[in-house]
């Protein structure tokens, strides 16, 4: 808080806005943008790893494993992702607590579900009742990340599975002809070549992930949507030093602009990356680059 | 209460018919399945109307995007950029609060703050933008030979568009458009989480599923029911679009006519 903001009732015009926008709550609002970016930074690699695993499963030569992999990909396509978000946050939480309950309180003889309650012994609770507030927040955030990773892992699996199939068959046959085992073919020939086929799908997925990030709000994390609703609502002089009408429209307009800028920057960066990756590749994009280079800029 | 009674009192609950009070204790599977299914009516209402109306705006915007005139092209580009570059969730919020302040200054706009109209407008604009991008891509992909053949036959202007450009565009765009339709129906579940009120607890399928999950503290029953309904809905959409595809491709050689739902991530 700036020292000039000590008595907000005397402020006017620009200085009122300056003080208003630097209140403690607004600072929390600005840090929540960091929460969203952190979620994206953690979720993207986690989803990619899960997706890679899912795609490997779907390619498996053992039928039950292949079914699991294909089922994982298919189910997320048929059901709205938001339903998964709402489901997994509670289901994962109850699952963890149930596991801990079974291990830590083995002599507990009552059922876990009693009517409309989910009861586990005290030491199995996650986080423990005695834990500080930040532990609760971290746990909530971790659950959200895991949920996002599971849902987007299925999308990523779909993309990577397609990319693995797009690698020319002749490449694999050549590897086999050289006597490579199945595993060697996979890691030395297929995986290094698949990324250029996967990148368009993955960049699309990144955009979808950015646009899904405000759903954090539904998972109980205090994110930008939470603060925009909280700060934008009309305030009376009784409760705040900075009374104002219903400004939620403007707060959400700001979020809209933030997301537009974010997706735009991502698009430009991913375009550059794609151009670099296609350079010298034996696909249409690489061929087009070669021709432009030969003729020179038109 | 037998399951038949439950069906009678709650099957049309989402439209405001039947029993007023939602169940509060002793939730049965039948109650959950009936109410969540009744909520599906809203999802179908939003999805079907937004898709139908959005189709026309999407074709117009796609044509504007390919126009030679900057005054047509620029607004179309901005329209698709704004609606494709920002989350639908935020668009709903912004739309609702925009309609709310419109209503406060001009009372004529008060129907806009209801989900039935306000959310439908947001969805209509959103799906138009996504579909416009798909159609624009398809317009660019029309084989040059087809258009030259049309010229050679003396077709021009509206006739050329109606008989060559438009059907070919639709045929090329169809797989991606199917995907968009599926995503649109999924996106309708967001409506009642974004400020648009579920008046008298008349909500969509997810609204009721969340209601049960919160009351019973057991997500393992309502959400799988919801998932089942949505898988059926998705299959129905695919079936309908397959019929459309068969009609669009009826002049193609048999090999090109084979149609598989191709799932891509596009939204």
Automatic annotation (TrEMBL), chain A:
It is a multi-pass membrane protein. InterPro entries: ABC_transp_permease_HisMQ, MetI-like, MetI-like_sf. The chain crosses the membrane at residues 36-59, 71-92, 138-164, 185-209, 249-270. One of its GO terms (biological process) is transmembrane transport. One of its GO terms (cellular component) is plasma membrane. It comes from the Bacteria. Keywords: Membrane, Transmembrane, Transmembrane helix, Transport. Its main location: membrane. It comes from Rubellimicrobium roseum. Residues 33-270 form the ABC transmembrane type-1 domain. Belongs to the binding-protein-dependent transport system permease family. It holds the Pfam family BPD_transp_1. This is ABC transporter permease subunit.
UniProtKB/TrEMBL annotation, chain B:
Residues 40-244 form the ABC transmembrane type-1 domain. Belongs to the binding-protein-dependent transport system permease family. HisMQ subfamily. This is ABC transporter permease subunit. Pfam families: BPD_transp_1 (PF00528). Keywords: Amino-acid transport, Cell membrane, Membrane, Transmembrane, Transmembrane helix, Transport. The chain crosses the membrane at residues 44-64, 76-99, 105-125, 181-200, 220-243. GO terms for molecular function: transmembrane transporter activity. SUPFAM superfamilies: MetI-like.
